[in-house]
Every structure is written in structure tokens, then in C-alpha cells.
Write a structure and sequence with these properties.
The structure is a single chain. It contains eleven helices and 19 strands. Strands 4, 5, 6, 7, 8, 9, 10, 11, 12, 13 and 14 form an eleven-stranded mixed β-sheet that branches. A hairpin with a 5-residue loop joins strand 18 and strand 19. The longest helix has 24 residues, at 269-292. The chain folds into two domains: 64-385, Alkaline Phosphatase, subunit A, CATH 3.40.720.10; 396-463, 2-Layer Sandwich (Arylsulfatase, C-terminal domain), CATH 3.30.1120.10. The chain has helices at 13-20, 38-50, 89-96, 111-120, 149-154, 219-233, 269-292, 328-331, 357-366, 382-385, 446-463; strands spanning 3-5, 24-26, 53-55, 64-70, 99-105, 159-165, 183-187, 207-208, 211-212, 239-244, 299-305, 332-338, 347-349, 353-354, 369-371, 395-400, 408-413, 416-420, 426-430. The protein is α/β, with parallel strands linked by helices.
Length: 466
């Protein structure tokens, strides 16, 4: 993105001077070792968004970006992934009309870490979000100094809206509206009752920007309507629409299951399936508004889940494990990318990628710039989305720390996966030949195990320095 200053005196002289001290570079850019402080990055982007700079003429406005995020979705629990006991025609249509990344991962096996990586484009460990932010941790949240995707897109004129689950902090300084989102309707906690809209401690948790409000609608229907309305209101300018569903996270309540008391639920497969179908209807409702405004070919749409499903109701087949674990079943996710005319319909890519890669992908699609020195772990998937090959990623790292347990580790590299259990036991799998992780090769490949362990230790020192 090219910038030029106006010749006349500016009332924003202080902002202009700050920007002149920091060189901006087109996206993408190799990450240098020295990084700007988070506060400087944020100040620079705010100045860039508000200062009297002008963009050179662009051939067309940048594309809209829509990101649907399911919650605790089993990797096999969609029609196009083979589910026989539920229907997801709208998500299946995204798959048929777009690109399916068949080896995609969430950045963690639980909610908060995945969301942190997704919105920052960095491993969540860099921000101290290595596990769930629990409902009782009322003073904890993602640092306001973190640079989030909506802040980057704002420099290109985007309006950003979040409709759904935040789960990155409870204090006002951590609200989405303080971290780049222009609009927010949803909840802060890890889950809420779908009808009573309270969290596990029975705190009211339905927000419009920074104010609590009441609404009788089933939560999935509510955010579908609000997200569709966002498209209607902002169709004339580029927008970033982030729809992180609570579904199908517990409590297991279908749209017809209004309980008398909060968190009453039917913990069975049938109810879980009805929640997924409701989510699919919500996706269809938003997509209908995009088509109604002739924005179909000007909108990049992505769909994925924050982690694998829970064992009581979900299917993560053919993968081993479930939510909370670093087995493939805990971190593998469907990932779809759709943009008619730009992304080839019905295509597939087997390259390993992660949710955090959507940060770099969206920034490149928008033509956005990052502050010089800002380090991303994200890799843009735009070349792969367009039918080519994305830059190869040598490794993907995972780390999860649950309360009262040892840390879990995982590293993917060149078709191999190194895992350390919470008990401290090391394992090794050749995923290219054993995606279900049934043959532990740690004892027969000791040198490979040692090399991968050393690579992991070096990464851990980088993202979680002592």
C-alpha cells in the first residue's frame, strides 16, 4: 500500500510525525528478529487510520472478508465430510464452490488460544493465552496492546463487526470494541445458555458493544440476524464480518429446547446435530444477504472450527482424540475458502495450515500494510486459494496447558508429528502414513525424535521466554 502526505499543514501533525518514524511495508514481509513494541504498533495503525493520508487509486475496492468460526465442531460432523445424521447444505455449498484445506488445524485444542492466534496471526503463547480464559478469571484477557486483524484492515477502510463469542477477556479494556471491532453483539464467556444468555456463574452475558441487553431469541438465530443486518448496512464499503458461533458448544440446547432454568440440556447426538443444523441455517442467512447485494464475487468467505468435538456427542473420525487433546482429533478442523471468480470451485489442498494463517490471508486480500518489524507466524493462503501453491511451511507447533496438568506438546514437520503427553511421555507418528496416530515410532526412530524435540524446545524458548 503506497502512501503520500498532503502538502498543507495538518492538525494531526503529532500522528504524522509518529508515522514518519516507522517505515511501513507492503504485505507480506519476512519477520525480522527485532519487533516494535505492541503499543507502538497500535499507535502507528491508529494514526494511519486517522491521519490525513491518501491512498493511490485502486482498481476496485478491496474484497469483503467473512469468517465463520464453529465451536467444538467434530471434524466429521458436516455433510461434505460424510455425516449421515445431519444436514448442512449451506456449509456444503461453501465447500462445493470453494477450496477445501484437508490438513487444516486450529492453533489449540480449546477455545481462547485458538481465537487469540486467529485474530493476531501469531502463536497464542506470545500473548500468554496458552489455555482457556475461565469464567471466574474476571480480570484476565488478551492484552490491549496486541495488534488484531480488524485494526490492520481498518487502515484500508474496512468496517469490522463481531457477532458471537469473544472469549478473550472480561474487563472493558479487553472488549472487542476496544480492539478494532466497530460493532459487537455477543458474549464474553466461553459459553452461555442459548436462551437465558447467562454464563456458567449466571452473570448476564449478552452485549451490544459495551452494554448489556436482553433478547428472547435463540442465540444462534440472534447472531445470524445481526450478522445479516451488518451486511445490509455496510454493503457500500469493504467490511470484515467475524461470526464466531457458540454452536455446537455446550450446553446442548437445540432451537426448540428452551429450558426453564439456565443450562438445562439434552446431552445427546440428536440435540448436538440440531445445533449444527441451526448454525448451518445461520451461515445460509448471511450468505443470502451477500448474494442479494451482488457482493458474491467481491467477498472472501472462510469457515473453520476452533478445535475438535467432545467425545460424548461429536465425531472426529478418522482422527484419534477430541477437544482438549493434541491428538489430531483435538486440533484438526475443516477449513473452507470461497470467493467465486477468484478461488477455483471444488478444489482441495493438502498443505498443512492453521487458523492463524487467515490473518495473513485476509491482510493480503485487503492489500493492507503492517508496521515494519511486526512479526507474524501466519502464512498467507492466498496463492493456494487462487489455485497455486502457498509458500511452504516447514513446521507447525502446538502447546496447551490445562489446569492441574502437565503441558501437552506437538510439532508437525515434513509429514511427522512429535507429541508429548501431559504425563511427560514422548511419542512420534508418521502422519503421512498414519493419520489416525495408531503406530508410535518413538522407539524405532530415536534420532528423528531427538531432532524434533530439539526443534520444539527452540520454538518454546522463542514464544515463551523464561
Amino acid at each position: 500500500m503506497c502512501l503520500s502526505t498532503r502538502a498543507s499543514r495538518s492538525p494531526f501533525q503529532k500522528q504524522e510525525n509518529e508515522i514518519r518514524k516507522i517505515a511501513f511495508s507492503p504485505f507480506p514481509r519476512p519477520a525480522p528478529a527485532d519487533m516494535l513494541s505492541p503499543m507502538n504498533r497500535r499507535h502507528a495503525l491508529r494514526a494511519l487510520a486517522g491521519a490525513p493520508f491518501v491512498l493511490r487509486a485502486q482498481p476496485k475496492r478491496p474484497p469483503n472478508v467473512v469468517l465463520f468460526l464453529a465451536d467444538d465442531l467434530g471434524s466429521a460432523d458436516l455433510g461434505f465430510r460424510g455425516a449421515k445424521d445431519l444436514r448442512t447444505p449451506h456449509i456444503d455449498r461453501l465447500a462445493a464452490e470453494g477450496v477445501h484445506f484437508t490438513q487444516a488445524y486450529s492453533n489449540g485444542p480449546v477455545c481462547s488460544p485458538t481465537r487469540c492466534a486467529l485474530l493476531t496471526g501469531q502463536y497464542q503463547q506470545r500473548h500468554g493465552v496458552d489455555g482457556v480464559i475461565y469464567v471466574g478469571e474476571r480480570t484476565r484477557g488478551l492484552s490491549p496492546d496486541a495488534l488484531l486483524l480488524p485494526e490492520v484492515l481498518k487502515t484500508r477502510g474496512y468496517t469490522s463487526g463481531l457477532f458471537g463469542k469473544w472469549h478473550l477477556g472480561y474487563p472493558k479494556e479487553n472488549f472487542p470494541t476496544r480492539q478494532g471491532f466497530d460493532e459487537f453483539i455477543g458474549h464474553l464467556a466461553g459459553n452461555i445458555d442459548y436462551f437465558h444468555h447467562v454464563d456458567r456463574q449466571l452473570n448476564p452475558d449478552l452485549w451490544n458493544r459495551e452494554q448489556l441487553f436482553k433478547d428472547p431469541r435463540y442465540f444462534t438465530d440472534l447472531i445470524a440476524a445481526e450478522a445479516a443486518s451488518f451486511v445490509d448496512r455496510h454493503r457500500q464499503r469493504p467490511f470484515f464480518l467475524y461470526v464466531p458461533f457458540n454452536a455446537p458448544h455446550d450446553p446442548f440446547q437445540g432451537p426448540g429446547d428452551r429450558p426453564e432454568k439456565p443450562f438445562g440440556e439434552k446431552r445427546d447426538r440428536k440435540t448436538y446435530a440440531s445445533m449444527i443444523e441451526s448454525m448451518d441455517t445461520a451461515v445460509g442467512r448471511v450468505m443470502e444477504r451477500i448474494r442479494a447485494h451482488n457482493l458474491d464475487r467481491d467477498t472472501a468467505v472462510f469457515f473453520l472450527s476452533d478445535n475438535g468435538g467432545v467425545p460424548a456427542v461429536a465425531s472426529n473420525a478418522p482422527f484419534r482424540g477430541h477437544k482438549g487433546s493434541l491428538w489430531e482429533g483435538g486440533i484438526r478442523t475443516p477449513l473452507l475458502a470461497r470467493m467465486p471468480g477468484a478461488f477455483p470451485a471444488g478444489s482441495a489442498h493438502s498443505m498443512p495450515c492453521a487458523g492463524m494463517d487467515l490473518f495473513a490471508t485476509a491482510a493480503e486480500l485487503a492489500g493492507a500494510s503492517l508496521p515494519a518489524g511486526h512479526r507474524l507466524d501466519s502464512v498467507s493462503l492466498v496463492p493456494a486459494c487462487r489455485g497455486g501453491q502457498a509458500p511452504p511451511r516447514e513446521s507447525l507447533f502446538f502447546h496447551n496447558q490445562a489446569p492441574k496438568q502437565g503441558p501437552q506438546r506437538a510439532l508437525l514437520q515434513n509429514g511427522w508429528k512429535y507429541r508429548r503427553e501431559a504425563t511427560g511421555e514422548d511419542r512420534l507418528y508418521h502422519l503421512a502414513q498414519d493419520q489416525s496416530e495408531t503406530r508410535d515410532l518413538a522407539s524405532t526412530e530415536p534420532q528423528r525424535l531427538q531432532q524434533l524435540r530439539a526443534t520444539y524446545e527452540a520454538w518454546l524458548r522463542d514464544v515463551m521466554p523464561a
